[in-house]
Amino acid sequence: MSSSPPRSGGCARPCAKRAGSSKVHKDEVKNAVRAYLEAQGYAVTAGAARARGMGIEAIRADPLDHVVLQARGEDSQPHQTNYFVGALGELIQHMTHPDARYGFAFPDSAQYRALVRTLPRPAWDRLRLVVYFVGRTMPEHGYRVDPLRGPP
User: Fold this and answer.
1) Going along the chain, which residue ranges are E strands?
2) Residue 16: its pLDDT value, please?
3) Residue ranges in the chain whose pLDDT is less than 70
4) pLDDT computed for residue 25 by the predictor
5) How far from 62 is each of 40, 41, 42, 73, 109, CA to CA, in Å?
6) Which of 85, 104, 129, 131 sits in a 20 to 30 Å window from 37, CA-based?
7) pTM for the full predicted model
8) In the chain, what are the helix, strand and coil shares in percent, each to the nearest 5?
9) 23-148: CATH number
C-alpha cells in the first residue's frame, strides 16, 4: 500500500469557469481531480461529464495504487443529498477491483462535507475510502483539491 500524501492538497490547473455560475460543476470536479492525480504520478481516465458509470479511475505504478472515484457536481442543497446517495450506490456497484481504493470527488461545500461525515468508520475501512473536495481558488478561477483519507 502506498504512503498517503498530505491531507490538504494544492491547486490543480485552471478549468474554464461556466459563464455566470459560481457552482463547481461535475466536469470541473473531474478535470480538477484529474489534474491533481496526474501531478501525483497517476495515469487517469475520466468518463464523460454526463455519462453514468465510472467517474474517475487512476493508476500509479510506483508506489502501486489504484483509485476509483465517483464524481458529482454542485447543485441545490436538497439535490446534493440525492446525488450523494446515488454516488454511494454507483460506487458500490462498480467495486470490481479487489485491491483498489474507492471514493468520491465532490465540490467543497458544507452540505457534501456533512454528508461525508455521516459515513461510518467500517465503510471507510472496507472501501479504503478517499474523498476529494474541489473548491475554486481566486482570482484566477483555478481549483483547490483537498484529499480526505480517513473519517473526518
Assistant:
1) 11-12, 43-46, 56-61, 64-71, 101-107, 130-136, 143-148
2) 43
3) 1-21, 48-54, 76-78, 138-141
4) 87
5) 10, 8, 9, 31, 32
6) 85
7) 0.79
8) 30, 25, 45
9) 3.40.1350
